[in-house]
Design a protein that fits this description.
This protein has 11 helices and 10 strands. It is α/β, with parallel strands linked by helices and 283 residues long.
Length: 283
């Protein structure tokens, strides 16, 4: 494995650690924003009492915490993330909610330090697309699933169909005069093709692979609310945005405001959004 790839992984880990305080602050919002996706993932994956579930790239842990009730009694959910700062948030939220059938581990989804066949179900919501080597991550997911174990994986659909984030990337690219994210760095839309996502899981040795689109619109009360939350939570962008000189930051904000005009309503902003939801099982 190249030093360059390892350096990229280390940078990504630091990046997610750096935005963890914002994820803690906005954890309830993140859960509400992803509620429909979470419900559909759990509907398709159908966790059962007594099963062992692994959530990868858990962030604040909302998906895994929702799964915990479904595997009780006798089941367990492992909340994992590459950043220990994230797993600490997820663990604290579980304790605060009185959920006692979860544990938290630092795990890299490309190097899942768990035994073969140790889980009935693997969940990953909006994390796989940030893996430097998603094919390796898919193979790791297949490896840790037991025979006939299931996986449910959500990634964002095409950039042009998710302007709630695409607008920020486009505005920042125009402001800086270079693409964001830069070539070679995994971005939020790196797995936005349903056929390619299905092939990724199929090539990993998983069976019964299916990918469906789930509508994921975003409604916010104002441009200011959308800008503040997106700037705080978007790991690949937060460091760039915070490092801009004041004049450039103001120009970027004005550019983004103009780009959101088509999505204005009487109640704020309403962005369309699309998530790709893949399901599969280990044969």
């Amino acid at each position: 494995m190249s030093a360059t790839t390892d350096d990229l992984r280390a940078r990504l880990q630091r990046m997610w650690a750096g935005v963890a305080p914002s994820w803690e602050e906005h954890a309830d919002y993140v859960d509400a924003r992803g509620a429909a996706i979470t419900e559909r993932m759990l509907e398709l994956a159908a966790p059962q009492p007594g099963e062992r579930v692994l959530e990868l790239a858990c962030g604040a842990g909302g998906l895994g915490l929702a799964a915990a009730a479904r595997v009780a009694p006798g089941g367990e959910v492992v909340l994992s993330d590459v950043a220990t700062e994230m797993t600490a948030i997820a663990s604290a939220r579980a304790a605060a909610a009185g959920i006692d059938n979860v544990t938290a581990l630092q795990l890299d989804l490309e190097r899942i330090d768990q035994p073969d066949g140790s889980y009935d179900l693997v969940l990953c919501r909006e994390g796989l697309m940030f893996a430097p080597d998603p094919a390796r991550a898919a193979r790791e997911i297949a490896r840790v699933l037991q025979h006939r174990g299931r996986a449910a994986i959500a990634v964002w659909g095409p950039r042009e169909r998710n302007p709630w984030l695409g607008v920020v990337l486009d505005s920042l690219s125009a402001q800086l005069g270079k693409p964001v994210p830069p070539p070679g760095v995994p971005g939020p839309f790196s797995l936005d093709d349903a056929d390619e996502l299905a092939r990724l899981l199929d090539d990993a040795g998983l069976a019964d692979v299916a990918v469906e689109e789930v509508s994921a619109p975003m409604r916010v009360g104002s441009f200011e609310e959308w800008w503040a939350r997106t700037s705080a939570l978007a790991g690949p962008l937060a460091a760039i945005l915070s490092s801009l000189p004041e004049e450039a930051a103001l120009a970027l904000r004005a550019r983004a405001r103009e780009a959101t005009r088509p999505y204005e309503t009487q109640d704020g902003l309403l962005f369309p959004g699309v998530t790709l939801l893949a399901t599969a099982r280990r044969p």
